[in-house]
Design goal:
The structure holds 2 protein chains of 2 kinds. Chain A is of the alpha+beta class. Chain A folds into 2 domains: 49 residues, no CATH class; 154 residues, Beta-Lactamase (2-Layer Sandwich), CATH 3.30.450.40. Helix content of chain A is 54%, strand content 19%. Chain A is built from 7 helices and 6 strands. The longest helix of chain A is centred in the last third of the chain and has 32 residues. Chain B has a single domain, classed as Rossmann fold (3-Layer(aba) Sandwich). In chain B, 29% of the residues lie in helices and 19% in strands. Chain B starts with a helix and ends in an 8-residue tail after the last helix. Classes of the chains: A alpha+beta, B alpha/beta. At the A-B interface, helix 3, strand 4, helix 4, strand 5 and helix 5 of A face strand 11 of B.
Chain lengths: 214, 283
């Protein structure tokens, strides 16, 4: 094996099954964001650069059963503006205006009274948008809440970056005639073993490696 | 321009690029000497409605017939040709998100008689939006607007150098770029450049309250939380974000420049500083 193949195998060991882990992390982030703000719902949409669409990757609260995987054009609406300008935006009293509600419904799947949206920025890239819907209107919106929203968006952006890296690596593996995938699955399976079984598995792999001439 | 004449300012002097100053040219760059002992808001914009000042909203387009916008001087949409050349076409789509209309409405509220134009750099699609943003700013600078409101920024480093050059060229051409600071701890442009006026939010409800920040890069804080704004389709909403603080300063700049068109961006920044709520006490 070349050094590049070694690298692929090493990456693969960490990649197999990691999509689920990173998705769970995104789910946890929207869950905490909703709880901290006392909001009714929270979601993360990611940009699909190939189709110029935004895709729901994590949803909690209203719409969580129906929105995952749904897509809509990235150029328009509230999240489109937030993404393109890389700037957070807070809008209140949305429901009082049914025409505005149509914009928001397209972006979020339901009509809230208010929404906060922040871009997911990683380095130079805008990856998607974090939205928090219907915070309680007990008080006027404050700058402290804006800062908190930004902190959640930063955390979410890191998780999204990991998810996207895992997807790229998965794609790479899938394109390697399946050979590398077998190696990756093997590495992942051995990694999941414990104690004696893990030791036995490692011995077997070393023996295999020796037999194959390394 | 009446005030400019009264101040003895001559537009032709603006065209003097003095790389050096010969002895016999000293008289030719004599500047208006009637600045008051204390620069007050009354001196800065008392009696001004913004009439004569030209403001550009670089954003998602503006809904010209919204009652809170009250018409536009021009509206163009920016696109890129096959070779990357900037194309500015008449924009008939209005506002693709509502945000540009909000910014125009805030400027109009503060400077009711200024001229407002829209340069749309958003909406076609997301990919390539950074290049369109640059093209739009270049176009706006070439048009010689007095004030360009930029309630947006880019995080793309390759664009930073060109944006910097554009911001500096605007500064020397007497076009003031008023740019939103980022609400999040990320590197974005052009608000970080010293040749623009960068704006963040405060929580006061007063649209004329603004604070000079002695710890830049954010230079000014303006009304940006729970702001009532016009939106597309004739709507009105309550919104928060630095992008709504920015047009408050753009509007105040329009008021000042309408009354004192001779001011350079350097001098205008000084007037903003001297009349800031935490400096001149808002007097």
């Amino acid at each position: 094996m070349t050094a590049r193949d070694d690298l692929h195998a090493a990456v693969a060991a960490g990649v197999v099954g990691s999509e689920e882990t990173f998705r769970a992390l995104l789910g946890a982030i929207v869950e905490v964001a909703r709880a901290i703000f006392g909001a009714k719902a929270s979601s993360i949409v990611l940009l699909d650069e190939e189709t110029d669409e935004l895709v729901f990757e994590a949803v909690v609260g209203e719409g969580e059963d129906s929105l995952l995987g749904m897509r809509y054009p990235a150029g328009k609406g509230i999240s489109g503006w937030v993404l393109a300008t890389r700037t957070p935006l807070v809008v209140e009293d949305v429901h009082q205006d049914p025409r505005f509600a149509a914009d928001v419904a397209r972006d979020t799947g339901y009509v809230p009274k208010g929404l906060m949206a922040a871009p997911l920025l990683h380095g130079e890239r805008a990856l998607g948008v974090l939205s928090v819907l219907d915070r309680p209107r007990a008080s006027l919106f404050s700058l402290q809440e804006m800062e908190l929203l930004g902190l959640f968006a930063n955390q979410a952006a890191i998780a999204v970056d990991l998810l996207l890296k895992a997807r790229r690596a998965e794609k790479l593996l899938a394109g390697a005639d399946g050979d590398l995938r077998v190696v990756a699955e093997l590495a992942s399976a051995v990694d999941a073993l414990e104690d004696e079984r893990r030791e036995a598995g490692m011995r077997l792999l070393h023996e295999l490696s020796r037999m194959l001439g390394r | 321009m009446e005030d400019a004449v009264a101040h003895g300012w001559d537009a032709s002097r603006a065209a003097l690029p003095a790389w050096s100053l010969p002895k016999d040219a000293v008289d030719r760059i004599a500047l208006p000497g009637d600045w008051p002992e204390r620069v007050t808001r009354e001196w800065a914009w008392g009696g001004s409605t913004g009439r004569g000042a030209r403001v550009c909203i670089l954003d998602s387009g503006v809904e010209a017939d919204h009652p809170s916008v009250g018409g536009l001087e021009t509206a163009v949409v920016i696109s890129l040709g096959e070779d990357g050349e900037v194309i500015a076409s008449d924009d008939t789509e209005g506002d693709v998100s509502g945000h540009g209309t909000a910014c125009a409405g805030i400027v109009r509220r503060l400077a009711p008689e200024c001229s407002i134009s829209s340069v749309r750099v958003l909406g076609a699609n997301f990919t390539g939006s950074g290049a369109v943003l640059l093209g739009g700013l270049r176009y706006a600078v070439e048009q010689g607007f007095d004030v360009i409101n930029m309630s947006l920024s880019t995080t793309k480093k390759p664009f930073a150098a060109v944006l910097h050059e554009l911001a500096d060229s605007a500064y020397f051409r007497r076009t003031v770029i008023v740019a939103s600071a980022h609400n999040m701890p990320v590197e974005s442009y052009p608000w970080r450049f010293s040749s623009v006026i960068s704006v963040g939010s405060h929580e006061e409800p007063d649209p004329f309250a603004y604070f000079y920040n002695p710890s830049p890069p954010v230079e000014i804080f303006a009304h940006g939380v729970n702001v009532e704004v016009p939106w597309s389709d004739g709507r009105t909403l309550t919104v928060s974000g630095n992008s709504f603080a920015t047009p408050h300063i753009a509007g105040i700049c329009a008021l000042i420049l309408a009354k004192h068109p001779e001011l350079t961006p350097f001098q205008l920044k000084n007037v903003l500083y001297l009349t800031a709520t935490n400096v001149g006490g808002g007097a």
